[in-house]
Amino acid sequence: MTTKLFGVTVGKMNENFTSVVLAASVFTLTVGYFSKRLLKESADRDVKYPPYIPSSIPFLGHAIAFGKSPIEFLENAYEKYGPVFSFTMVGKTFTYLLGSEAATLMFNSKNEDLNAEDVYSKLTTPVFGKGVAYDVPNPIFLEQKKILKTGLNIAHFKQHVKLIEAETIEYFKRWGDSGERDLFEALSELIILTASNCLHGKEIRSMLNEQVAQLYADLDGGFSHAAWLLPTWVPLPSFRKRDKAHREIKNIFYKVIEKRRKSGETADDILQTLIDATYKDGRPLTDDEIAGMLIGLLLAGQHTSSTTSAWMGFFLARDKALQDRCYAEQKAVCGQDLPPLDFDQLKDLNLLERCLKETLRLRPPIMTMMRMARTPQTAAGYTIPVGHQVCVSPTVNHRLHDTWVERMEFNPERYLNDNPAAGEKFAYIPFGGGRHRCIGENFAYIQIKTIWSTLLRMYEFHLVDGYFPTINYTTMIHTPHNPIIRYKRRKQ
Ligand code: HEM
To answer: Is 340:165 a contact under the CB 8 Å cutoff?
Structure first.
């Protein structure tokens, strides 16, 4: 009986207890739900999004103004809105981070938060192919970059200087003693030859005839605004040419790789580095990955280096005294009789190096680096929402009033003096920063310094009737408009 009573009592107590707990839970959940909603609403009200530049043109937004003069557009926006602002173009919202401090967000971020594949792979995967660069998870691409970096070593650079000098002398034979020619076109053609020779090896270089050059041009046509805006399956003639060129170039590379593997010959070059390389888990690279990396190596340096070399030529042609000092430096460092170039002397051509550095400041070939915000990001106290394309512009950072003295002057000596920009980590970023930083910087310096050493020894350069090329903003990399230069063989 006692037990029964006890049981009933306990049962009642249990029931009461359960009801109390249930009621309390319902109350807590309800209060929780409403307070969460209230909190979220007030949090949303508290979130400060970057200032938005309004536009009255639906969908296109600021595309026309930006396309006409992107740097002017960004500089005006910086003046009006500060270092972080957003605007819309062709249905996409872009948030720019201008200046060294704001740019820190991009360079310190994780790829999972600010993602490169989301913005670049549509352009690069059809050109480089699957399994490399932005087609693979970033940790794999980082391993591929590490492998490529081991191939870009000093022993190889020493060979490259000789190869590039020989290619330059051979190529410019067609220019004769004097004339007026398209410098950008010449340097673009030369750089395919030098890059193929140095980065692909002698077998692939020896197959580089007009037909193969056309394949590279068709493949390169894949880097277009159309490819960036339209889905890759759209039957545009340029897309079809790109895809056909991709298949044919890969077939050429497969044959060379197979021949190298079968010959048992171990050459000392970058192709061999790739053939011998393994990922961290011990897996070797497949032929397809090697071929994709070879395409990537060539194209990553092609426009960047040819545009930079061409602009450098015009800066030197515009300032005859500087050009003469660069020539005098050749004699002072290498010897009065100007013997063939070598890697150690090239390193000591400091004035030439500063000219290149200054060219990369005023005309950095990559005008904007982009990432997709996959998680909300904070910069300058603003919250950048998921889905914004987050951008940093080397061109704008390289000429901000607050950072650079006489910002628009081409002055290679600024790096010798007290240079305020040196104190700001991301004021000078022609090669990017962080996990996506360029691996080709040293090769680019060697290539461009060797080409210009050779050219300065051959010719004196002048602007044609004082014309310094304006900037062509219609191409993805800002090239010189009407890049004709006047040249005359130098008397030794
Ligand atoms: C003047 C010459 C060059 C300039 C100005 C340049 C500039 C850049 C910049 C700004 C980036 C960063 C892109 C980003 O963060 O979105 C980059 C990345 C890269 N560059 Fe270069 N580059 C040059 C030459 C080269 C050459 C010659 C090679 C190869 C030999 C090369 C290979 C790469 C690679 C593999 C990346 C890594 C991309 C990533 O990790 O996302 N570049 N380059």
So the answer is: yes
